[in-house]
Amino acid sequence: MSTSLSTPPSVAAQIARLPELPMAEIRALWQKLVGGDTPTHNRQFLERRIAYRLQEAEFRKIDANLLDRNQRRIESLVETGKVKKRDRDHRPVAGTVLTREYKGVSHRVVVTPDGQYNFQ
Question: What pLDDT does 3 receive?
């Protein structure tokens, strides 16, 4: 069974094919995906960067916001040299039941979907 010529190969197939390509095609792919001349003649480096770009282009179609957010985090890391910790919401998830025993009396608190607490 043959595949249609109009259907582009999967990203995994394109990456798997990289070691088989002649160096001239590797350079052409570099210019297409990265732009400009190749910075080195190290084939392994070029294959890895091309593989990264192929994946990046494919995943950008799926979730461009994630890639943009990651790019901002990378730029911040380069500028400051420190990884900014993500703001985390440490509140319990809605539906969580908190129970405590105090002076022989059991107290129950249920977290509601709006972030409030129901004392029982």
Answer: 45
